[in-house]
Amino acid sequence: MPLPRRPRLVAAAVALCAAGIASAAVVFTTNGPFGGFFGLWGADLNPQQKAAARFVPTADHTFDDARVWLMNNSGSAYGQVTLRLELDATDVGQGGVSRPSGIALEEWSFPIQTLGWNPVQHTAPGSARPALRAGRKYWIVASSPAPSGANPVWNFASSGNAYTAILQLDGSWAAGSSAALTLTVNGAPGAPKKGDIDRNGAVNAKDLSLLLTRWASTHPAAGDADTNQDGIVNALDLADLLASWG
User: Fold this and answer.
1) Is residue 36 part of a domain?
2) Is residue 11 in some structural domain?
3) At 98, is the secondary structure helix, strand, or coil?
4) I need a labelling partner for 140 at 20 to 30 A (CA). Which of 63, 66, 109, 150 fits?
5) What residue ranges in the chain does DSSP mark as E strands?
6) Is there a single domain that holds both residue 229 and residue 122?
7) 125 and 163 co-located in one domain
């Protein structure tokens, strides 16, 4: 049975794995995809296009999971999708425009879990569980190698706008306020103190050793050693660690 027609939108999607871990707090959330004026619609994912949704925590959290609603332009193929938690370009020295930086704190890749226009919420559970710092901008970025017409679709929320970005054919991001892509980010309240790389509650010689071991590392290998989350472990992070000593 053919799928109903809808407006063709630039690409996007995300996806998951199995059940997410329990979370203590909602860091960010939109409405679900059902009941909106336009019905079920969304951003397509194909090899030429990606989509991203931005969120800004109002308090420090430790990332637990990201949840997105996906449907499928294919009724028979479970296309692969990749989901990334990325830093914002403005926070890593990539100019003054808020957009995904390409620097990922976590990444997941898995097949979509639904066929046809039957939206299913997919959960990407954290393993590194990076810190989400209050007031910082973060992105959930989705992509897929599935061909156009047989690709995953990241559903738009039934109502409301949010800050989103679409990857253009020339490789640049077009970012701004638009229809919200469905997204829920969960986290545990609080985050490790800057410099507490082993997360034992204290900043000491063990953390200094870990920072020096990861010197000049970039994400995701940098982990909590990148205390200021600018994408690399360097003297700025060493200064943060020493300021938090004890």
Assistant:
1) yes
2) no
3) coil
4) 150
5) 25-29, 42-44, 51-55, 61-72, 80-88, 100-111, 120-125, 131-132, 138-143, 152-167, 173-181, 184-189
6) no
7) yes
Residue range 20-73, pLDDT digits in tens:
344 479 999 999 999 999 999 999 989 989 999 999 999 999 999 999 999 999
- Which of 91, 125, 123 has the alpha carbon at shortest distance from 16? 123
- The model's pTM is 0.90
Q: Nearest 10 degrees: CA dihedral of 190, 123, 70, 143? A: 80
Bond from prior residue into 220 cis (ω within 30 degrees of 0): yes
Q: Are 144 and 215 within one domain?
A: no
Determine the distance from the C-alpha atom of residue 203 to the mean position of all C-alpha atoms in its chain, rounded to a whole number: 28
The sign one gets for the Cα dihedral 79, 123, 218, 230 is positive
Burial class of 17 by CB neighbour count within 10 A (0 to 12, 13 to 18, 19+): middle
From residue 123, alpha-carbon distances to 22, 71, 89, 91 in Å are 11, 14, 25, 26
d(CA 146, CA 154): 13
DSSP 220: T
d(CA 49, CA 94): 21
State which amino acid sits at residue 172: S
In a domain, residue 197? The reply is no
- Count structural domains, the chain: 2
Q: Does one domain contain both 73 and 180? A: yes
* Contact of 123 with 20, CB cutoff 8 Å: yes
| Residue bearing the bigger pLDDT, 72 or 14 | 72
| Owning domain of residue 234 | 205-243
